[in-house]
């Protein structure tokens, strides 16, 4: 159970175990990059076809201002779209939880919305809503809304029946049952959904920009490709990957802060 | 004799075509500890669901302190199987749950519960999460959450069913001591014969489904029980007798598998 370790000592143990945990992944990625670097250097392939990782990094550094300027709109689109999506998903999940019949009516519509191919829908949304922020927000929301809604609904349903029976015996009305039991029960599901959706969100934003934008990583990639600069395309990819990882990390951090009871009881190493 | 706290008169319950309870008549007097003993799946928990209002029936009548149950308001504090503690709440906030639902402020609720932690062997664990506690402690916290609601009667639904044998024996002894001190009016559902004999003033033995009362046994052993050889011998005799009733072929239950170990439904 709870070892009486000092917090800092526990943290150090955790860090070491995290690093040990990540070591195979670091090695795998590292060797891939090395093979790529070797191939690009010695096979005589043109840098306009396959630039070496070192060249990508050098160019990324040289064009850091442009990359930064284009990353900001992407981040803004991602975050606002995701915020909208979270808000809508939460609101709807609550409504649907109280009126289950609505769920049967609405879920098929949402499932169909998830079958729309992004390549087709992104240009249309840009056509309808212009080159500004709005079409990006809408596309990000479209991509992430349903997974979040499903995660929340599943979470409510995962409430222990005995807990509901207990609250009912105490005379708790339906809204209290939701507030005291169903909502907290959904947290693990919500955060699992959040971690997946946040990565979709970045992809969604870049796709929307690709279909038409004044600024952003998506349009930057498109322009770089048209100018035969795969090194800059890859540099932008690198930035978007870093962005995604940061958002993923933020989601994990939020999960830890929101669910302190899981942290205190799980020992040392990461469980998932 | 004064009016019984709880009186069931020929209560039945049907689930579709399935008859779950049939002709159940029983009484619980104020300050009495009554156990409902029966095989798994015999409808013991259904009885509690009827009492807590989760389900209703129109067969028979149920009176609480002389009034029809439906008009008596919420008279029971219910303790479910397993502990049903909220993993996201600290123990202190778990034990105040019933008070919070009643609309009592969080601060006031805490003030009412806090002094009881020592008596329930939970002192120092107010700020722990349930997962940090042992099974026995969690069960004590669940009982604290139940009794602090200050309802006229406790309903205990196999409260120790999920515990290991040793912890269970300790908890039974502890609960008996607590009951002797507080004299709660309580109804315990169990399929553990020893537990029923150890804790109860009276036992109703139910048949397999459809559940009927097949025996009513007064346990007049002196308390505290199971401490001296003479009482232990008498308790063992009563246990053997009840077990005989439960396993009798014509009650249709014994089929070679152990009913003691089967998970309760």
Automatic annotation (TrEMBL), chain A:
Entry keyword set: Cell membrane, Membrane, Transmembrane, Transmembrane helix, Transport
A Pfam family: BPD_transp_1
Major place of residence: membrane
UniProt keyword Metal-binding present: no
Keyword Transmembrane helix tagged: yes
Transmembrane annotation, as ranges: 21-39, 77-99, 106-131, 137-156, 200-220, 232-254
Domain ABC transmembrane type-1: 75-251
Gene3D superfamilies: MetI-like (1.10.3720.10)
Subcellular location(s) of the protein: Cell membrane
InterPro entries referenced in this protein's UniProt entry, alphabetically: MetI-like, MetI-like_sf
Membrane topology per record: Multi-pass membrane protein
Membership in a protein family: Belongs to the binding-protein-dependent transport system permease family.
Name of the molecule in the record: ABC-type nitrate/sulfonate/bicarbonate transport system permease component
Protein source organism: Neorhizobium huautlense
UniProtKB/TrEMBL annotation, chain B:
ABC transporter domain location: 6-233
Keywords annotated in UniProt: ATP-binding, Nucleotide-binding, Transport
SUPFAM superfamilies per the UniProt record, alphabetical: P-loop containing nucleoside triphosphate hydrolases
Transcription as UniProt keyword: no
InterPro entries (alphabetical): AAA+_ATPase (IPR003593), ABC_transporter-like_ATP-bd (IPR003439), ABC_transporter-like_CS (IPR017871), ABC_transporter_ATP-bind (IPR050166), P-loop_NTPase (IPR027417)
Family stated for the protein in its record: Belongs to the ABC transporter superfamily.
Stated name of the protein: ABC-type nitrate/sulfonate/bicarbonate transport system ATPase subunit
């Amino acid at each position: 159970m709870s070892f009486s370790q000092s917090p800092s000592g526990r943290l150090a143990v955790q860090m070491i175990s995290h690093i040990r945990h990540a070591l195979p992944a670091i090695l795998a990625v590292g060797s891939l990059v090395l093979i790529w670097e070797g191939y690009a250097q010695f096979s005589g392939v043109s840098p306009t076809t396959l630039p070496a990782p070192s060249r990508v990094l050098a160019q990324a550094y040289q064009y850091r201002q442009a990359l930064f300027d284009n990353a900001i709109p992407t981040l803004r689109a991602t975050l606002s779209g995701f915020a909208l999506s979270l808000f809508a998903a939460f609101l709807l999940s609550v409504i649907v939880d109280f009126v289950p019949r609505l769920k049967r009516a609405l879920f098929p519509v949402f499932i169909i919305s998830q079958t729309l191919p992004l390549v087709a829908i992104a240009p249309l949304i840009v056509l309808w809503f212009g080159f500004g922020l709005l079409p990006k927000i809408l596309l990000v929301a479209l991509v992430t809304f349903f997974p979040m809604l499903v995660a929340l609904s599943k979470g409510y349903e995962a409430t222990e029946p005995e807990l509901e029976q207990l609250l009912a015996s105490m005379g708790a009305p339906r809204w209290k049952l939701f507030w005291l039991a169903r909502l907290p029960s959904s947290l693990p599901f919500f955060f699992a959904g959040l971690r997946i959706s946040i990565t979709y969100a970045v992809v969604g934003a870049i796709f929307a920009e690709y279909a038409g934008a004044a600024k952003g990583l998506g349009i930057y990639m498109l322009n770089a490709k048209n100018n035969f600069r795969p090194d800059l395309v890859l540099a932008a990819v690198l930035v978007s990957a870093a962005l995604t990882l940061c958002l993923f990390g933020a989601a994990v951090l939020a999960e830890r802060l929101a669910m302190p009871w899981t942290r205190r009881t799980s020992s040392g190493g990461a469980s998932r | 004799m004064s009016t019984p706290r709880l009186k069931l008169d020929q209560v039945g319950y049907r689930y579709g075509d399935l008859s779950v309870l049939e002709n159940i008549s029983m009484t619980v007097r104020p300050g009495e500890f009554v156990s409902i003993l029966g095989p798994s799946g015999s409808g013991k928990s259904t009885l509690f669901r009827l009492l807590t209002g989760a389900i209703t029936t129109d067969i028979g009548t149920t009176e609480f302190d002389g009034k029809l149950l439906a008009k008596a308001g919420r008279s029971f504090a219910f303790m479910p199987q397993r502990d049903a503690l909220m993993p996201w709440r600290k123990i202190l906030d778990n034990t105040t749950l019933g008070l919070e639902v009643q609309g009592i402020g969080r601060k006031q609720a805490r003030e009412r519960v806090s002094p009881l932690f020592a008596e329930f062997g939970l002192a120092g664990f107010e700020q722990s999460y349930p997962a940090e506690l042992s099974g026995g402690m969690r069960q004590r916290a669940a009982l604290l959450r139940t009794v602090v609601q200050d309802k006229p009667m406790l309903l205990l639904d196999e409260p120790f069913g999920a515990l290991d044998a040793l912890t269970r024996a300790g908890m039974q002894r502890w609960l008996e001591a607590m009951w002797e001190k507080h004299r709660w009016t309580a109804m315990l559902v169990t399929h553990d014969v020893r537990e029923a004999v150890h804790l109860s003033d009276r036992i109703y033995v139910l048949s397999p489904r459809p559940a009927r009362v097949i025996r009513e046994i007064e346990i007049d052993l002196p308390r505290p029980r199971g401490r001296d050889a003479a009482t232990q011998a008498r308790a063992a005799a009563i246990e053997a007798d009840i077990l005989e009733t439960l396993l009798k072929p014509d009650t249709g239950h014994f089929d070679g598998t152990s009913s003691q170990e089967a998970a309760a439904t």
